[in-house]
Structure formats: structure tokens, C-alpha cells
């Protein structure tokens, strides 16, 4: 056993509470992102007395690991005083929080090394289970409680800064959307357009192409973001575009017809259509917001799988205000987008700091 490593079973115990009195409290699920989320399960006709109760600063985890990819589903509950979770989850708690800080323990669970350990220790034929005994046999460093709280405080400082950036990003996005609507939507009579305004088809001033398929086996831990429109899926050694591009999600389980901006220096997958403006009189940022506010989902022509084609998009009409007004908006919107990019870049560095802090847990001293 490594110096200062302890068996987790010495510090935790299962929680046995059931909802026998049928309390009306929130029903939660667990995400592979290691957070509790509101449950969307249909509970009509379900015997809610069998559901487990989880309280603040208690944990829940899904023992079945074979369907979770590389991650084990585990999270620390801190949303309400108490909630319900499915009997499929195992709730547990720290016996003495003056010996082991629950937030410190959750940091250990967030480490990718713990996920690999849990998958390695999982067993079963039809489905693999990381059972309670294996959880208790987990070894981790348990320094003095003051040291644990110091580490948690450092981690939370980074996370709080990330949360603040995310709030600001949301406000900036709302501001850009509000400006667009104020300038180009509110008070505009589409049957009697102001002077200089016109409708034109997208084929007249754009070029469109599909992103490229990329096997996930080629993904790297670092590199250029692989962007599907649904989000960053991984990283790759090459990029397709140096500047952000307008993307229309063109296939997938959900989201078809939604419009996104890709990151800089990104590789775009074939789940999106790239819409490039090829006329200097049309603003990219104006077109981005115009398409975002259009009902492109109605173009879905798929049956078994939702789908939008470049042909569907090319023949769509777009409202074009005078070029001078578009360019004025372009400057304002780009200024906002640059600030959003700065905040996202800072969040990326903060994420790297968190990963470094989590990696150092393995060598923490007393």
C-alpha cells in the first residue's frame, strides 16, 4: 500500500433510507458527467415507496459500468436537503466528515484514474458491476482534514471562477441576441420592407459543404477541437478552418436544424453543414443570427433519422438589410464574440488547472 493510502471502506457506509412515507421531494438521476440531474423518468404507476432517499453531502453511484463507456456514474448530492433516486443507484455517506471531507472524496472520484480503476475492478457476464465491496476496497490518500479542506478550497476557487465565466458568457450571448432582434426583427414589416431591405436566396451569397467524418479512434487528448455542432467531441492533429464558421446541424438524434458557431481552428464533423458567406456585402455575424432565429428544423426531410441537406438550405430565402447596417452589427457582434472567446479560453486554462490539481491528489502528503 502506498504511504498514507487508506481503504475507503473505513470511511464510508451505505444509506438505507426508502421513501416509505411517499414524500413529495425532487426526483433526481445521475449523469456520467458526475453530477445529479433532474430525472425525466416516467413514474406514472410506479411504486415510489421503493425509491431511495439521498441527502445533502451524500453520494450516489450506479454500480453497472458496462454501459457507461469509460466513466463510472457517481456524484455528490448538494442540490437540495434531500431527494429521491432510483433503486438502481447505491447511496452512501462519509461516516465522519472530520476524518474525510466529502468534497475531497468527490475530487478523487473525478479523476480519470478512478474511472479506469472502477472499470478494471468491475465484473460480471451479462453486465459488469463495480459493487459495494470493490468500492470499499478502493485505496486513496487521506491526509489530515485541514489539508483536505485546503485542497477543496483551491479546487472550488477554480470552479467558482469557471462558473462566473459561464454566467458572463450567457449574459453576453443574450445581449448579442437582444441587439439582433432590436435592429432587425422588432418593428419590421415583412410585407412592406424598409428602403434598402430585400429577400434573397442563400444560394446567391453562400457556399455550403458538409463537414468530414472522423473516426473517434483517431481522437487525441490534446490538439485542435473536433466540433460536431453538438459540441467538442475530442481533439485531432489537423484543423479545417482558422476562423469560426456558421454550422447548421444536419443529422442526428435531436437538434437537426439548430445553428452553431464553431471554435477557431476546428475540425468540423459530418453532422453539420458549413455555411460560408462568399459576398463581401453580407455580414457573417448577421447571417449567423438570422439563421439562428429561423425555423430550419422544418426542413428536416429524414424519416428513420432526421436530416437536412445543402439543397434544402440553398433555396431558403434570407432577409438582407442594407450592407452598412449589417456591417455595423458585425462590429458589435464580433466584439461580444471576442469577449466570449476570451472567457472560453480562460475556462480552458482553468480546466487544465483542475486536471492538474486532481492528478496531484495521488501524491498528496499529510
Please explain how this structure is put together.
The protein is of the alpha+beta class. The strands form 7 sheets. Strands 2-9-6-7 form a 4-stranded antiparallel beta sheet, with helices on one face. A 4-stranded mixed beta sheet has the order 4-3-8-5, with no helix packed on it. A hairpin with a 5-residue loop joins β3 and β4. The chain is elongated, with a radius of gyration of 25 Å. It starts with a strand and ends in a 6-residue tail after the last helix. The mean pLDDT is 92.
Helices and strands in order:
Layout: E1 5-7, E2 12-14, E3 27-30, E4 36-38, E5 52-55, E6 59-61, E7 74-76, E8 82-85, E9 90-94, H1 102-110, H2 112-121, H3 132-136, E10 139-141, H4 145-184, E11 198-201, E12 206-210, E13 224-227, E14 232-236, E15 246-249, E16 251-252, E17 259-261, E18 267-268, E19 272-277, H5 284-292, E20 306-307, H6 310-314, E21 317-320, H7 323-360
Helix pairs in contact: 4-7
Beta-strand percentage? 15-25%
Q: If you average the pLDDT, what whole number results? A: 92
Radius of gyration: 25 Å
Helix and strand composition category: alpha+beta
- Low-pLDDT stretches are none
Q: Order of strands side by side in the largest beta sheet? A: 2-9-6-7
Shape: elongated
Along the chain, the helix and strand elements come as: EEEEEEEEEHHHEHEEEEEEEEEHEHEH
Number of strands: 21
Number of helical elements? 7
> Major β-sheet, in short?
4 strands, antiparallel
**Distance N to C terminus:** 15 Å
Helix proportion of residues, in percent? 25-40%
Amino acid at each position: 500500500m502506498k504511504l498514507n493510502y487508506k481503504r475507503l471502506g473505513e470511511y464510508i457506509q451505505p444509506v438505507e433510507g426508502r421513501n416509505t412515507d411517499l414524500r413529495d421531494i425532487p426526483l433526481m438521476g445521475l449523469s456520467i458527467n458526475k453530477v445529479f440531474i433532474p430525472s425525466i423518468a416516467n413514474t406514472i404507476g410506479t411504486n415510489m415507496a421503493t425509491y431511495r432517499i439521498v441527502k445533502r453531502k451524500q453520494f450516489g453511484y450506479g454500480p453497472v459500468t458496462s454501459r457507461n463507456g469509460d466513466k463510472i456514474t457517481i456524484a455528490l448530492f448538494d442540490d437540495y436537503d434531500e431527494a429521491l433516486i432510483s433503486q438502481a443507484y447505491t447511496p452512501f455517506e462519509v461516516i465522519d466528515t472530520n476524518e474525510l471531507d466529502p468534497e475531497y472524496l468527490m475530487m478523487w472520484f473525478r479523476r480519470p484514474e478512478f474511472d479506469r480503476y472502477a472499470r478494471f475492478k468491475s465484473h460480471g457476464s451479462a453486465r459488469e458491476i463495480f459493487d459495494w465491496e470493490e468500492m470499499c476496497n478502493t485505496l486513496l490518500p487521506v491526509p489530515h482534514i485541514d489539508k483536505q479542506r485546503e485542497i477543496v478550497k483551491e479546487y472550488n476557487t477554480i470552479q467558482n471562477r469557471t462558473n462566473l465565466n459561464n454566467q458572463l458568457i450567457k449574459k453576453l450571448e443574450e445581449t448579442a441576441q437582444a441587439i439582433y432582434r432590436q435592429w432587425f426583427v422588432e418593428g419590421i414589416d415583412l410585407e412592406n420592407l424598409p428602403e434598402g431591405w430585400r429577400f434573397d436566396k442563400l444560394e446567391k451569397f453562400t457556399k455550403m459543404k458538409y463537414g468530414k467524418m472522423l473516426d473517434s479512434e483517431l481522437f487525441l487528448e490534446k490538439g485542435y477541437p473536433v466540433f460536431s455542432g453538438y459540441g467538442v467531441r475530442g481533439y485531432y492533429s489537423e484543423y479545417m478552418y482558422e476562423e469560426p464558421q456558421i454550422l447548421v446541424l444536419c443529422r442526428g438524434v435531436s437538434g437537426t436544424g439548430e445553428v452553431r458557431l464553431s471554435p477557431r481552428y476546428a475540425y468540423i464533423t459530418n453532422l453539420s453543414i458549413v455555411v460560408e458567406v462568399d459576398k463581401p456585402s453580407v455580414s457573417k455575424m448577421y447571417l449567423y443570427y438570422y439563421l439562428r432565429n429561423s425555423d430550419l428544423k422544418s426542413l428536416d426531410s429524414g424519416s428513420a433519422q432526421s436530416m437536412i441537406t445543402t439543397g434544402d438550405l440553398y433555396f431558403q430565402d434570407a432577409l438582407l438589410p442594407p450592407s452598412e447596417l449589417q456591417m455595423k452589427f458585425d462590429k458589435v457582434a464580433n466584439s461580444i464574440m471576442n469577449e466570449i472567446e476570451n472567457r472560453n479560453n480562460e475556462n480552458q486554462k482553468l480546466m487544465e488547472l483542475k486536471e492538474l490539481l486532481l492528478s496531484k491528489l495521488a501524491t498528496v502528503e499529510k
